[in-house]
Fold each of these.
Amino acid sequence: MLKVTNIITSILFLLLSLSATTISAASENLELVTWGSVLPNAMIDTNRASLNVQVEIGGDIPLKTHITAHTPAGNMLQRTNLGYWVPWSGKLDDLIDTFSPKSSNAINFKIFKDDDLSEELFPIKIMVAYRTATELKFGVFDLAGRRTQ
Amino acid sequence: MRALFLNVKLSCFRFLILAAATATISLLQTTNAWVQESLSIIEVKRVLAQAIHEARTRGVGAAIAVSDRSGNILAVYNMIGANRQFNAAGVDCTVGLSNIPVGCVVVTSDPKRPNGVPGKGGLERLDVPGPVAAIAKAITGAYLSSSGNAFTTRTASQIVQEHFNPKERFSPSGPLFGVQFSQLPCSDLVIAENSSAVTIGPKRSPLGLAADPGGIPLYKNNQVVGAIGVISDGLYSLDPNIGDFDNDLDELIALAGTVGFEAPIDIRGNRITVEGKTFRFTDRGYRALKSQASEAVPFDRLDRSVGGLTEIGTYFAGTIRRGTAFGTPASGYRANTTGEYGPLNAFILVDGNNQPRFSPRDGTEGMPEALTANEVRTIIRNALTIAFRARAQIRRPLGDHAHVTVSVVDTNGAIVGLARTPDGPVFGTDVSLQKARTAAFFSNRNAGNELIAGNLGNYVLQARSVLGPTALSDGIAFADRSGGNLSRPYLPDGVINAPPGPFSKPISEWSIFNTGLQLDLVAANLVAHRSFLLGLSSVDTASGCTSLPLRPETAKSRIPNGIQIFPGSVPIYRNNVLIGGLGVSGDGIDQDDMISLLGLHNAGLELGTGIGNAPRGIRADLLFANGTRLRYVSCPFAPFLDSADQTPCSGK
């Protein structure tokens, strides 16, 4: 039988929603780590995508927050604090602070809000990250698209 | 709605228009010399009908897939009764797809042992639906072939085994040893969506490349337009014995499908030699067919009791579609029009909006030594220049130049540039990237720690027992040929009874379906994809292979399309600092090696910025393993069409 020596230990959950999708630390105990955590995959309605990700920060004191996207076509983008997606060089020093809100030991990353992704290829690789005084912690997940009429 | 990815595309498009208007480089040879061919829906139906007719004449069922050259699956048809009802464990493995009962096939490294070989491990004894295997075989036939060479899955079988030729004792392994684990469903380069709405390629293959005979390319007017893949015997295997000529049902049925779309005789594998050995195209010719193609029942008149079109996950939606013309934007491959590679007839990958996917850009490390976009551009141009000068090994007619894909990555594995010659086999797109990343990864001082973090520390321990306690953390420069030496089931390569390389399974467990580190890095991804295709899981494999630590710059590991273990890459240095990898794939492995080494060397001379090959004092060919010296690169003798230079790599 198939011998698997390196099964990804994270359990991946597929969340289906035609409105807003939230990947929440409350239900999944999501944390970001310096070597990159694998977050639950998500699926969105491509015509009207809304997605939030909430992660726990433990005792960390985040100074900046970041959101990036890698598309199948090879584009690298990052989200600004105003919600625009702009090209990113791929260099960490060029990351823009998204000023994602922190509350009760968690950060709420707003990835999409009513965005039209109907022309995009999937899966899109999303990274959320925060920077403390000493390190960058991040997590990634695949965003799949559900095309509706 | 405040932000759209589409806005970014539009702004990029405006930028490109501006750049084109101000460019001063003359644009030469950027149009295709040939008429670009493709398969129509009528032709796809004809291929299917002919194959079905042969299968019915022989009294068997078959799963049949047709692909275009970019990997778009144009049709999947499953005949009632095809393949197996029970898997290797005796469990019913049939599934209902599109209301068609679909049999399974079992992976076995010995076709005489239909339930697999005990103890082999890896993918051995795995079962998948027949159409899934047929897709892998069709993609293989399409991806390995070009207008200069027609290779089949039987050719693949010949060049991936532990000896070349198979069973030729003490001869080294096949030149494309390990290529079966490319085009993987988790690759971040290939396009996962496969539909009439998303035609750009290259596309992924559910099982990587196939070595099971029955995948044969399709041609129109001397151009490869796709391939047919057939599986009917319930076994996803290989041909371990090249000393005979089989009556392989899969191959015969596929061959019938190719009538009217035959590969030109002069470019078939059996007209092409490597190391003095001819490749095998098929074991039987058209005279061995039992049916007449002209008597095939037209596809549209086939009764439902024969079988039907079969939906398969992300690969085929159940409706036959036409193929794309390779080299047009719809295929995802087209001529470069920016002039950034000088007058070379370079081709690039484009997205669905006809915008370049991998234009040269800076490395992502943020360190002063990182690659710059101009350096990437110069490296690719110099590598392609060598390719256009190099005498092709695997193409006809004699005197043609090599056709390859060239990939450049930084140390994070980020793709910082990719371009190709017009007719390079498509498989080289993903493989050149695997090679570039593999060289950069194993040359990185973090390689050992990251493998340990990915629960693959056993391979690190094995490497250190052979190469010394600092292996994979001491900055030794590994070309893919070096890492390949360590990935063979015999080290020295081909020497029977020699111990395995530290990245390989011992020969008792080894097979092409259980190579060692190469498979173990991606096994979980393959399992996840299989479960997704079977409907056992709603979650497909992630885009980005392996469970190694992720890089924030890429959101993936450093090797997100897996590693490759046959030659054709070098790590890139700025003076003594590792800054990336250069991978080449598409021609003979010595040619690929040469294009890598000399392309980088010449770029370094042109740039004068410290860019170049690894200092000779840190190259892996200083290391000994099992009493044999590792190799770095191996270049062909007298390789050029325009020069009598005998040993161009000497001293580089």
Amino acid sequence: MRTLSIAFMTAALALTPNVAPAQRAFTPARTSDGQPDLQGMYTRNGVVGLEAKPPVNPIDPGGSNPLSVSNRGDGLGPYPKVFGEGGTALRGGQRGAGQQHRTGIVDPPDRNLPWRPEEDAKRREFLLHMNPPVDLRHVELNARCALPGLFQGEDNNNPYQFLQEAGEVVILYDYNHTSRVIHLDGRPHLGSNIRLFMGDSIGRWEGNTLVVDTTNFNDRTSYSREIPYLTAALHTVERFTINDANSIDYEVTIDDPGLFTKPWKTAGYFTRVPKGTESLEFACAEGSQTLLNIFGPPPGR
Amino acid sequence: MERFIHSLVYVSALLVGTLPATGQTQSRRTADGKPDFSGVWQAVNTAARDLQDHSGQLGVPPGLGVVEGGEIPYQAAAAAKKADNFAHRATADPTEASCYLPGVPRATYMPFPFEIVQTPKQVAFIYEFAHALRNVPMDASPHPDGLPDAWMGDSRGHWEGDTLVTDVRNFNDQTWFDHAGNFHSDALHVVERYTLSGADHIQYEATIEDPKVFTRPWKISMPLYRRMEKNIRLLEYECVFYQQEEKFRNAPFHK
């Protein structure tokens, strides 16, 4: 299953032009209810990036090959390879030659995040206990087959499908059969006692840009391996801008006063995969032995 | 006083405007002329406990069966396996005991809402339970050859008049139809039929065929109800995550 999916992706990357077209206004088709039409299947690229001075990556301290966690010879990194593939995300902040899209942390431009110093210290201490994880809370969400939050879906890998119907934009992830329903009908956010991995998303169109305001996160989502948790105070504003027939530019403002003194921004882009690509089932928990491998059989069993 | 009268007139107009609508069976259509199934739906029955007639027990609500004719036509060996499943259901039910994806049709009648997303080329079913998801291409494409087995199967959809029909194959043999141990093999073939019986009701049917387990195809049917709350939306029931917390007894996160 994974092999098929990766084969699709390789084909997608090979076929998708990586250079933005000359600057001219692109006019997308309209859906029957008048929304700019961004439907289709895309890969996400570059959203998760590195800070200017990131802490040591706890999963791959040498930084040699974040793709092959399970191939480590030292017995560390108990994650199956399927989770290690997410490590490509760590490279999001880098820019290839001729890269036209903004990726990774874009504001502040020097990528020094506005950490509250005491929270930065706590986070760095936390990371020291992730490999091997000292307890369940130090296990990456991906390894627990949990919903990934907004950032830890996957970059450069499993595709995302956008569907639109009256009053909604729906994003279906290949990754762990995740989905987001973005409501465009002006409804208010949920009450504050409801907390969600994926948050509660309310959207609106500004020209060809879908602006999505998301709140009601739980305190278990993360931004990256280096920023392994965000708080329930997290509030995001995402901007999906239809760039041309084959790409969507993406920017998100991350406002988490629990960790940071002011909002910061990260960017990336979506590129269309070849016609005929289909999403395959990404069953995760059903085959996972990860927690058993880490912690052994649960007490009392 | 004048304002009061205005209010009365307004309220009367509202009543006149809404009363006939509640009685009618006309339902919305999409821009391409199909019945509009989009929205959040839920079964209101006990089929996820037991597809067949069952009495109440402590913690088990009683329920009318949803199997046409009442009986599930097991082959002899399969009937014995069903009985064994039933005896061990507390720990052996893949969905209740292990939070695994519920398969089809069980996902439909889990006691959780699900959303139908309807576009001309594709329909998606998003289930609140375990964030299960089904993509249903509506482009007349066949089931691909060589796909690995899947918990939720491979769904292909088409229209028969105003009925949305899905053909689902390519299942693994790991899911149960209910907590009573009704089961299938990897030869399972399910055909679902969704028909609007009003703006806010779907008549749901699933024909179940599995030559390794049953002596003939059999059918379940039930109404599905639109969730009418104005602010309705799917939330999250992260069964796996909650179970991990329970099993591995972790401390509260990030405190």
